[in-house]
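Example 387.
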Amino acid sequence: MARIGVLLLNLGGPERIQDVGPFLYNLFADPEIIRLPLPQLQKPLAWLISSLRTRRSQEAYRSIGGGSPLRRITDQQAKVLQSELRQRRIDATTYVAMRYWHPFTESAVADIKADEMDEVVVLPLYPQFSISTSGSSFRLLERLRQDDPAFARLPLRAVGSWYEQPRYLQAMTELISATLDQANAPDKAHVFFSAHGVPKSYVEEAGDPYQEQIERCARLIMDTMQRDNAYTLAYQSRVGPVEWLQPYTEDALHGLGEAGVKELVVVPISFVGEHIETLEEIDIEYRHVAAEAGIENFLRVPALGTHPTFIHALADLVETSLAEEPVDLATFTQLPQKTKLYPQEKWQWGWNNSSEVWNGRLAMLGFLAILLEVLSGHGPLHALGLL
Ligand SMILES: C=CC1=C(C)c2cc3[nH]c(cc4nc(cc5[nH]c(cc1n2)c(C)c5CCC(=O)O)C(CCC(=O)O)=C4C)c(C)c3C=C
Ligand SMILES: [Fe+2]
Ligand SMILES: [Fe+2]
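Predicted structure in complex with fe (ii) ion:
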């Protein structure tokens, strides 16, 4: 019987307060998270943004006990999934591969090789595909296969997205229904899907299917649940000054408050485990916003964790994948034709993509020059007495 390594992809989270800075640096150094015109600027900018954000992020992690529970929860999911697969007579071993913190993807791949697995099934723990989540991990795996012939030789199967999987939808409806039943008026409570946001340009310029998948996912869950409650979908966790997918969660909460909604059942829809964005952002920040908006009862649906129906869904996904042919990871990471590539290859005269990119590059260089001058205390602006 073939020995199957099931590689579970997730984002990772800082386990201790002192991990927050290096974790944020790893995240912002990823070009799938911050898409820059000049790749050389990625690391300096990652350093700058992570340094500026660390204190604020640390406060948020302190408020949930000093670190992210994501590793512990993902390890539990891996363990329970492994025993479910073995009960189904599949000789599977599960491995956790985090993108920005321990256990890193590189070390999970090293373990798969050391354990002499015959085949690999890659299963992202994100139901919907985004270039910033599953896409980033697939790209990393693609690079690791390019650099390592032994890993490249292993037949590999991968699940791109699985938000339509019937048992996943069933698990979501079980949890939502149980929470709705705790409401004072279960038939009238408003179901509020809060999805993790991404910058709008990911969808409109880079062709990220994420928004479409999230919208379909929310609709499918409501259809599966067969209850008549009204629902809203909004996007949380915006970072930085650019426009992200709308409506923003805080605006939608205010809108519902104004419309007279009194009971809300909040559903985290992009995550399958509790983490900072459920425990801090939804449970603390958005609960407060909702109260200000006049919403009297704010109930939150727990993340799936090791819910048995959900673990069955994951096992079904592995089984279905094993029945298919091995894949080339590039199938998942190729971006559509309309993608604006960064950096643009060819210079064209006039006001066009190319000039936009060069304007961006020059602005970025100017910004870095000023930053260096502020930090060092020397430079042309000081000489002119302007700084
Ligand atoms: C700046 C851009 C970011 C994009 C784009 C983004 C997309 C995205 N993220 C998740 C899931 C998670 N994000 C987590 C942490 C996290 N994400 C960002 C930024 C972006 N995410 C930051 C700065 C952080 C750190 C926390 C903070 O400072 O706010 C995590 C880990 C949470 C934990 O418990 O540690 C997850 C999981 C999804 C699903 C997604 C796009 C679809
Ligand atoms: Fe995130
Ligand atoms: Fe966040």
